[in-house]
Amino acid sequence: MRVTAQLIEAETGAHLWAERYDRPLDDIFEVQDEITMCVVGAIEPSLRKAEIDRVRRQRPSNLNAYDLVLRSLPFMYALMPKHAEKAIPLLRDALKLEPHYGLAHALLSWCFHVRFNRGGAREADRVVAIRHAHEAIAHGGDDATALAVAAFVIALDEHDATTALKLFDQALTLSNSNIFALTGSAVTLAWMGNTEKAIERAKQALRFSPFDSLNFRAHSAMSIVHFYSGRYAEAADEARTAVGSNPAFSISRAVLAASLLRLGRMEEAKLAARLVLDCEPSFKIQKLSHLALEPAVLSALSDAWRELGLPE
Q1: Do 90 and 68 form a contact (C-beta atoms < 8 A)?
Q2: 7, part of any domain
Q3: pLDDT reported for residue 48
Q4: Which pTM was predicted?
Q5: Nearest CA to 146 among 132, 162, 163, 166?
Q6: Orientation angle between helical segments 232-245 and 216-228, nearest 10 degrees
Q7: Mode of pairing for the β-strands spanning 2-8 and 15-22
Q8: What is the pLDDT of residue 62?
Q9: The domain that contains 206 carries what CATH number?
Q10: Top-confidence residue, 152 or 141
Q11: Are 221 and 198 spatial neighbours (Cβ–Cβ below 8 Å)?
Q12: How far is CA 192 from CA 32, 199, 228, in A?
């Protein structure tokens, strides 16, 4: 059976997305469910990009809370402090207009999570990140993205992995192809050492939404899992793909450097380590101690980073 799906912008007739699905007609209901998940996963990032382009064309006087949130999204994906700084005022303005906007709270939580983890480990940033995460849960219980972002912050900043995994599952019950929930839970599970479930979630993200700009998190999760499991060639491949998708994200570069070291490719590993510091001059191994949801996962990487001379 062949199913073709298209997404057209009604206002202009512009073609946003199309895909063709060929499936054996063994179980029509299974085929229907599979194609539904693939279509939703593919349309969501296309629609998100179209909406972001729309608000960029608007005059500032036309902004409302939703548009302010959309304007913040391009800055969210890099997961680096200089980008988070640009998103924070937009999200604060959104909350002035809509104080109980769950997604705005979630994304603001993510910004302060990035500032804490990548920008100096200031306790005040961690506290604010956790506070907004809980506000997102309180006001965004029907929003899969808000729940997923809050879950990620609660896992890594509050170190409450049990609650975080329940929230990820709740988000996926609401939307089983949600890219934030799939990639966020993949990364969380990777740092927990839950290798099989992390790879399962990462592969789901790539299958349901293969062109999403957040997919570097899926590749990053798999690189961590493969490294922890001693599959260094696979770890290097996944880390390199993650770097290609998001060159600004230093963790993927650091995992790539560690993987190349363990493969005996010392010169490539040293170059990759230098690029970590070019990407994030303040990179320090101790700043990543919050990632130790399963200490053995982080220590395996940390040992390699020390061998490469990355700062303690």
Answers
A1: yes
A2: yes
A3: 67
A4: 0.80
A5: 132
A6: 160
A7: antiparallel
A8: 45
A9: 1.25.40.10
A10: 152
A11: yes
A12: 34, 12, 11
Beta bridge partners of 6: 18
Residues 6 and 120 in one domain: no
State the pLDDT confidence band at 63, using cuts at 50, 70 and 90.
low
pLDDT tens digit string along 164-223? 999 999 999 988 889 899 999 999 999 999 999 999 999 999 988 787 888 899 999 999
Please check whether residue 305 is in contact with residue 135, taking contact to mean a CB–CB distance below 8 angstroms: no
**Within a domain: residue 8?**
yes
The residue ranges of DSSP E strands in the chain, in sequence order, are: 2-8, 15-22
Phi, psi of 22 (to 5 degrees): -110, 120
Q: Tell me how many degrees the CA angle 273-279-281 measures, rounded to the nearest 5.
A: 85
Closest Cα to residue 100, out of 129, 70, 134, 55? 134
Q: What is the pLDDT of residue 294?
A: 93
Name the nearest CA neighbour of 127 among 148, 103, 157.
157
The pLDDT tens digits for 79-113 are 778 888 999 999 999 999 989 899 999 999 999 99
Structure tokens belonging to residue 281: 């001059």
Range of the domain at 18: 1-57
Structural domain total, the chain: 3
